[in-house]
Fold:
Amino acid sequence: TQLGILYRYKDTGEYVLGSKLIEYGMAAVDQENVIDRITPFMHEINEKFSNTVLFSSWTQNGPMIVKDLNKNRGINIGAQIGTLLPLRSASGKVFMSFMDEHMIQEWKEKELMQIPREKAGLLEDECKIIREKEIAFAREPLVPSVSSVSIPVLNYKKKLLGSVTVVGFSEVIPQNEHHELSRYLIDISQEISGIFGYQ
Structure:
């Protein structure tokens, strides 16, 4: 805790990742120069949606937010840099759909234990659609009235480098791929992944 590797909550005594570990993780993400390359697209998405835009990357404990752009700082979206995202979030669904099974197995098992069995089955079916359409939706996964839509960032090996997620009030966040903003995100997703050689 003194080195900032772990942080301990005073009230519960629970340990979570500390600021130094988050910093190291972000440095590791930057090795592929991903954040620098996608930041202009995040700004473009932020301008188009006027909502929070997040970039999440994989860690041993699950997908973590490593960059955020937010014009409306007053809105509590239930997430900030360093937040680990659950499986039922739009970003979590992207990681479940595109990450190598052996890398996410522990995280996935732990997350699925917190979801009713019938919903877990539906989630597996949803992941097939996400792989096909390359876009994921989540209705109010963390905070009431706040929903999200997420796109994968893939490289030439179809390896997931991370996810770009738009978070905002449920009434303005699309819930299917036919929405105008969904089509815009699918197009920009192709452009972003194209930088990393994805066809």
About this structure: The CA atoms of residues 37 and 195 lie 8 Å apart. The chain has a mean pLDDT of 86. The longest helix spans residues 117-133.
